[in-house]
């Protein structure tokens, strides 16, 4: 089993435990699956430009204007395959009712694995910093666009967009 595959079950378990054990303030909304989505984009770094695909989930609001969002992406290009598994907390800026744009900023932690075609690979803990906008289209779906920094030994900037389906 590769070194990276050993990290993914551990990371997923830690994320689930942290979500389940997170304190819930009295004013918090319920936690639980509120939406899920798909994402695609580009990772832009001098030595590693890649096409990304992945998914994410909205696991609810532990406090007003805060969203829990685990995500994963797979990237390909520049003679490498990358995997990112992370969890973020987003601050949702208060907006007027009926607004067509919902901005957010946030951050979290992730496990970032790079498998180079020549046989070498790296797995690092990464700091994730993101900002973007959600654009509701109908009550049950919308789209989003965001930028994310994956900060480890080197910083990788990512542009991603996708679709959310809401419960």
Structure notes:
The protein is elongated, with a radius of gyration of 16 Å. It contains 1 helix and 8 strands; from the N terminus they run αββββββββ. The N and C termini lie far apart (37 Å). The model is unreliable at 1-5 (pLDDT under 50). A hairpin with a 2-residue loop joins β6 (121-138) and β7 (141-151). It has one domain: Porin, CATH 2.40.160. It has an 8-stranded antiparallel β-barrel with strand order 1-2-3-4-5-6-7-8. With 167 residues, it is mainly β. It has one helix spanning 3-21, and strands spanning 31-44, 50-60, 66-77, 80-92, 102-116, 121-138, 141-151, 155-166.
DSSP, total strands? 8
Helix proportion range = 10-25%
Low-confidence stretches: 1-5
Strand-residue proportion: over 45%
Structural class by secondary-structure content: mainly beta
Q: What's the level 1 CATH class? A: Mainly Beta
Per CATH, what is the topology?
A: Porin
Could you report the average pLDDT, rounded to the nearest whole number? 87
Q: Largest sheet, if any?
A: 8 strands, antiparallel, barrel
User: Can you tell me the overall shape?
Assistant: elongated
Distance between the termini: 37 Å
Q: What is the H/E string?
A: HEEEEEEEE
How large is the radius of gyration?
Answer: 16 Å
Lateral strand order in the biggest sheet: 1-2-3-4-5-6-7-8
* Total separate domains: 1
Level-2 CATH architecture: Beta Barrel
Total number of helices: 1
């Amino acid at each position: 089993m590769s070194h990276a595959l050993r990290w993914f079950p551990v990371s997923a378990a830690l994320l689930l435990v942290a979500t389940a054990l997170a304190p819930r303030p009295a004013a918090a909304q319920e936690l639980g699956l509120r939406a899920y989505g798909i994402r695609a984009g580009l990772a832009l770094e001098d030595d590693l430009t890649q096409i990304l695909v992945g998914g994410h989930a909205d696991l609810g609001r532990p406090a007003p204007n805060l969203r829990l969002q685990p995500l994963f992406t797979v990237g390909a290009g520049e003679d490498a395959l990358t995997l990112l598994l992370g969890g973020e907390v987003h601050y949702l800026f208060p907006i007027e009712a009926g607004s067509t744009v919902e901005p957010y900023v946030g951050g979290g932690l992730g496990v970032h694995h790079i498998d180079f075609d020549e046989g070498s690979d790296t797995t690092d803990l990464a700091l994730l910093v993101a900002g973007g906008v959600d654009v509701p289209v109908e009550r049950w779906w919308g789209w989003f666009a965001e930028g994310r920094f994956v900060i480890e030994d080197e910083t990788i900037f990512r542009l991603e967009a996708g679709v959310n389906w809401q419960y």
